[in-house]
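Recall the central idea of this unit: under ordinary conditions, the amino acid sequence of a chain determines the structure it adopts. In this exercise we apply that idea directly, starting from the sequence alone.
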Amino acid sequence: MLDRLEELQREALQKVEQASELNDLKDVRVAYLGKKGPITEVLKGMGKLSAEERPKVGQKANEVRDEIKTAIEEKESRMEKEALDKKLKEESIDVTLPGRPVRRGNRHPLTAVVETVEDVFIGMGFSVAEGPEVETDYYNFESLNLPKDHPARDMQDTFFITSDLLLRTQTSPVQTRTMEKHEGQGPVKIICPGKVYRRDEDDATHSHQFMQIEGLMVDKNIRMSDLKGVLETFAKNYFGEDRKIRLRPSFFPFTEPSAEVDISCAICDGEGCRTCKQTGWIEVLGAGMVHPNVLKMGGFDPEVYSGFAFGMGVERLAMLRYGIDDIRHFYTNDMRFLSQFK
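Accordingly, the structure predicted from this sequence is:
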């Protein structure tokens, strides 16, 4: 058996020396050191040996294994180094060449608009509040003076998850949640940006998903003139110092009185053109004094507190500011479109 082990050692070392690829060395390893290799077969026959011969054969088998294993590892190391040196020589680069410039990205136009609007209102003392996009029927409708079967709900047809859970149709629920946290004590002065969802047909001016920014101010002695002053300040900061606003009577279930807010057209400076449909004005947002029922459900006494609220679509603000004619551009991830807004 000792002679057989020496023979296997010579064979294996010779094959290791002759190996020209790493796969050849793997084959040698499996053939001689594997569980089904000849060395293992020799060891299986040790039961036939005498007690004096067994230790000698076992020791020799271990020495042979170690010799073959060492030879394979040394040859592998040399071959890997040679392969690496060859690769480095073939793939050498000139580090003195100028690098490829990394293109600087830019904010999405809707993100830019939200941040600009936030800056304007934070400058007026408002804080930014957020809330869940999956809302309960109570916060999305009932707490905003829209009880079940109210006809105004038809204008905000939405996606229901259960009979009570839905994707919010407006960020107004954040206003109610914030009023509840104040436990009937003013002042409350917030804006609420975020995504909202309605079952609208997707076309150039409508989308089933869009963004809103709503605002709320509740305190003692808040008047309609305060609302106009805040919105006028916003319009001049966002659209330009020359812009004027006007309030037209309207209806919203959660405000009374309510108003549609227009800005003077920047294209014709109020003279009338195609953009403003010859009126000189462009509708921007809705607003009004918070309805007493909404104040009550928010935990405030309408005999002591009053407030105003407003809401505007972020996409509409962006379309007016940048002259974009299709709301769908904001959601198609077209780099040709997005790269224009730096």
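The CA atoms of residues 70 and 76 lie 10 Å apart.
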